[in-house]
Every structure is written in C-alpha cells, then in structure tokens.
Design brief:
By secondary structure, this protein is an alpha/beta fold. The chain has two domains: about 240 residues, Ribonuclease Z/Hydroxyacylglutathione hydrolase-like (Metallo-beta-lactamase, Chain A); about 140 residues, Rossmann fold (3-Layer(aba) Sandwich). About 35% of the residues lie in helices and about 25% in strands. It is built from twelve helices and 23 strands. The strands form five sheets. A seven-stranded mixed sheet has the order 1-2-7-8-9-10-11. Strands 17, 18, 19, 20, 21, 22 and 23 form a seven-stranded mixed sheet that branches. The longest helix has 20 residues. It is elongated, with a radius of gyration of 24 Å.
C-alpha cells in the first residue's frame, strides 16, 4: 500500500525504507536501516526527482502511481546515477514511455553503461544554471561533480526555494513516518558517519558546492537519504563546511588501539587514565578489532587529536589497524595532531609503519616518537605514556 508524505504544497516524498539491509554499499553497517528518497512534484507538469534502490521499488511505484492518478509522468530529473537511486529508472521508463529524462551529459553516458535500452530521444540535456519550467515551479540545475560521483548534479526549485541535494546532507537510518529532521530524533553522528565515509574524500568538491549554495536562498534541503531539513539549516551547512575543510569539531582525543592479548589495550587504557587525570576534556577509546572503521573515520573527522596504538604482527601493523589507517588516508584526513604507541615482543615495527601510512596525509603533527612497548607496559613505558598524556593535554590547550 502506498505511504507517500506531502512535504510542501504539491511536493511529495515517495521513497522507501530498508530495515533489512546489513551493509550499505555492502560495506557500511546500518543498524537503523537506510531510506532511499525520491520526490514528486505535481504541477502543470509532473516531475519525478530521482528514483530508488530496487529494495524499495514496490512501495515507490505504489506511491508514484497513486499520486499521478492516471496522469502521465512528464519529467524524470536524474541527479545521481548510483544504483541506490537510479536502479529503478528503467522500470519508470517502461511504465511511462513518454517521460523525458532531464540530466547532464555525464549522466547520459552512465545510463548507457548501466542499461541496455536507448534513451537518446528522451533526453533533455542540462548544464550549470539551466532551468526547466514545470508550471508554477521552475527547476534550476547545479553541477556537483564528485559529491559523490563525477556525474552528480543538484536541483534547485526556485518558487519554493528547495534544494534537492543528491547524496549531500544524507543520513544513515530509516525514516519512521516523520520526514523532517526537526520531527525526528535526528542523529548528527549518523549524518557525520554518512558524510565522512561516503563523501569525505572530496572536501574540495564539497567546498565548491557550498559556495554555490551560499548564493541561493534555501528553505528546505531534500537529500537522497535520511530526513529532509527545513529548520536550522545553518547548523548542517556549518558542519559540512568544517568537515569538507578537514577541521576538527571538538578538542577531543580519539584513542584507537589494536591488541591481541590485551597488553596494547592496557597501554591505551593507561594513556586514557593519565589524560583524564591531566584534564583532557574528552577522550574516546576504541578497539579497532570490534569497531567498524566507518565509526572511527567519523570520529577521526570529529576529534582534534588522534592516538593509534598497535601491536606488531607479521612484522607489520596489526591488520585491523592497518586497514583503518589506509582508510583514513583514503578519506583524506588532514590537520590533526597524532601520537603513536607500538608493541612488539621481539621486533616492534608498528610505530614507524603507522607513521609512514599517516605521513601521506596533509598537515599532520606528530607528537614525538612512538612510545614503544616490549610485550607489556613496565614502569619505564608507564612514565613515557604519562609524558605523552602531558604533551597531548598541552597541545589540546594550545589549539
Ligand atoms: Fe546514495 Fe552515491 O548514492
């Protein structure tokens, strides 16, 4: 049965929620599920903005069919070709053969890559600043390459001043009836985890889009995942500005440790205790073996100071820690103060190897040499850990 929601006059959310999915993009845990948002405007023309993942196509078509009430579908605006939004467009075309596909040339190329049918006759090609009148409403198009794929564009509706932002401003988590963020228990942590993992690598491109958005009056942001925003937009925009400039949000210490038998964990716990005693405002300790990297990527984007503690394993860095550090570098983490601890019973190498991985990142400040432990913390290393805590607290206060 259809269950669309009207979010503005004649504008409807017609997406769906997937609560069975374990891993979004087959990599990111989504314990609260995920929503795939699609929007429909009913004006002199009927305009669909993006489609949905196959997982929710049934309710999507029920929503679309119920709202059209036998009218033709005039336009499908395609902002992003990733299959979680575009997989269902083939069936839209089959059901409404007269529909025109409004998109840029890169999207047209990707349609040809994903699908076998020829849509050439149906394309309305748009570029930066082009407009599409639909009656009382007019859509304007903004190119947003690499937010999150190269073909991405955003669509701005001029009458209602609504930005359809594609993946940008998305949040993990299914919707529960309410569509607006101000009506839900909005999870900034899940918005952060979504942004940093999905788009985090492309800060420069996000900055370019934010500059375009600054020139628009925006009353509502409609992303392709998670709730719609109509209040306190400046809060979210400020977060995006900070995340995309790779500036930390909080003076906080993230300690991520990789430990086989608990001795490296002990070193990390000792550091946390000494930090607390010396007045560190916030300390977060995580075991990388049991914490999905997506949560640690998000925390690394939030925290100003990062500590990595790893045992040496096969003459290298313990596997979950190496994965995390490579993932952080791939997401372009920058501008952080970093401290390292290593452990090794006969040839500790994890410290220098971790440093080598993080030196690829821009503007990382390393606090001294790695604290090196042989099997278990002894008095000498405990003193080094206390000294490191002092350096970190001094740095936290100086920033
Ligand atoms: Fe939600 Fe880049 O797709």
């Amino acid at each position: 049965m259809y269950c669309y929601r009207e979010i503005a006059e004649n504008l409807y959310w017609i997406g769906g929620n997937d609560r069975r999915i374990a891993l979004f993009e087959n990599v990111y845990p989504v314990p609260e599920g995920v929503s795939y948002n699609s929007y429909l405007l009913l004006d002199e023309k009927t305009v669909l903005l993006d489609t949905v993942d196959r997982a929710v196509s049934e309710v999507f078509f029920e929503n679309l069919t119920a709202l059209l009430q036998g009218r033709a579908l005039d336009y499908l605006i395609v902002n992003h070709m990733e299959p979680d939004h575009a997989a269902t467009m083939a069936e839209v075309v089959l059901r409404w053969p007269g529909v025109k596909i409004v998109c840029n040339t890169k999207i047209q190329g990707m349609i040809g890559q994903f699908f076998d049918f020829d849509l050439t006759e149906r394309f309305i090609t748009v570029g930066e600043g082009d407009t599409l009148p639909a009656g009382r409403h007019t859509f304007r198009f903004l190119m947003a390459p690499m937010v999150h794929w190269p073909e991405v564009m955003m669509t701005y509706e001029e009458t209602m001043q609504i930005l359809f932002s594609a993946d940008a401003f998305g949040t993990f988590g299914a919707l529960s009836g309410h569509i607006f963020a101000d009506q839900t228990a909005f999870r900034m942590d899940e918005a952060r985890r979504y942004y940093t993992n999905i788009v985090g690598k492309y800060g420069a491109q996000v900055q370019a889009v934010l500059k375009k958005a600054a020139g628009l009056r925006i009353t509502m942001i409609c992303p392709l995942h998670g709730p719609v925003f109509r209040r306190d937009l400046e809060v979210l925009l400020e977060k995006y500005d900070r995340w995309s400039r790779y500036q930390p949000e909080d003076q906080a210490v993230l300690i991520a440790y990789a430990s086989v038998y608990g001795n490296t964990q002990n070193a990390a716990e000792l550091l946390a205790a000494r930090l607390a005693e010396q007045g560190a405002p916030e300390i977060r300790l995580y075991d990388v073996s049991v914490t999905h990297p997506s949560y640690l990527i998000a925390e690394a984007f939030r925290c100003s100071h990062l500590v990595f503690a790893s045992t040496t394993y096969n003459a290298g860095v313990f596997v979950p820690m190496e994965n995390l550090l490579r993932d952080l570098a791939a997401h372009n983490i920058q501008n952080r103060t970093v401290a390292l601890l290593e452990n090794g019973s006969w040839a500790p190498t994890a410290g220098s190897l971790m440093k080598g991985l993080l030196e690829k990142c821009k503007n990382m400040t390393f606090l001294g040499d790695p604290v090196s432990i042989r099997s278990a913390v002894k008095a000498e290393q405990a003193a080094a850990i206390e000294a490191l805590a002092g350096q970190l607290v001094q740095s936290l206060r100086a920033d």
